[in-house]
Amino acid sequence: MIILLDLRSSGPVKYVASKREQPGIFERLESRGIGGAQYVQIKRILTLDLPQTTLFFQNQFGSNTPSRVLRLVNKWRQCLRSDFIVPEEQRKDLEKSIAGAEIFAWNAIIEASFPELGSWKLTRMLVPTTSEEGRARYIQPDIKITAVHEGTGETRVAAVSGTKAPGPEWCESWRKAFEKLGLLELVLTQDAQRRLVSPKGPQAWPIYTQVAIPRLYEFLLPFYPSKGHITAKEETFTRDAYYPRDLLEDMLAILRAEQPQFFERTKLHQLKAVVQRYRARRNTQSIKTAENRKTSTSF
Questions:
Q1: Which end of the chain is more exposed for a tag (fewer CB within 10 A), N or C?
Q2: Residue 288: which pLDDT band, with cuts at 50, 70 and 90?
Q3: Letter string b/e over residues 241-272, b meaning 16 or more CB atoms within 10 A of that residue's CB
Q4: What was the pLDDT predicted at 178?
Q5: Is 299 part of a structural domain of the chain?
């Protein structure tokens, strides 16, 4: 926008638009019927529904499992108990690092254990500490864990103290709870989860390329109807475009707004390639499913 100031006159300043300003991402989304309620779902896809604790753990500790980290934590603590070489200040720093690693490991274990742990269904709920005027109040509430076996229906219950701040005592409280449930060994020997991160940049992490971006694409695609191109295998036009440019541009803008540290340098063609690979995987799975159905009904 250009501002014209007429020095010969005391009249009002004139504003002349030199170029039509481009609407921001939220204005573009709103013009397509994507309002606040829909953006909450976008938030869930890109942030709230992602296993943040596991994502952080894998980024911090690579391919090491939480159980392996806990074993190393115990070794370090045993070593420090008998150590007389490390200066006091360095010892404090080491103890903080060890405690932090233990917390990260247990957070990852807890996230991986709910809502399913082998043949068990696990739920957790806060236990009210007081009640005032019929309303429950929660001041450092305990956590009640309920485990139900899928096959037998057996139910087990344990609790984690709500008075423990994250630290060694908090970790021990969770360990005792799983031990009381009879599930500690299962918790600590869970199979290694699918890798959510990779040595490549964050924009190439599987958690985004195989989970978040495909979900975002599927959610937004119906809001971007666009005439598709007829491919060599198609004789007539019967569908909307799979990769509308407006859709890809808005997806990239959303990713940059929600995860700027990860997607600030991502290019449009890179995002399109991720979506294309997703559609190729989906189509392959659909073909295999159809073939399996034909085989199962041919007898």
A1: C
A2: low
A3: eebbeebbebbbbbbbebbeebbeebeeeebb
A4: 97
A5: no
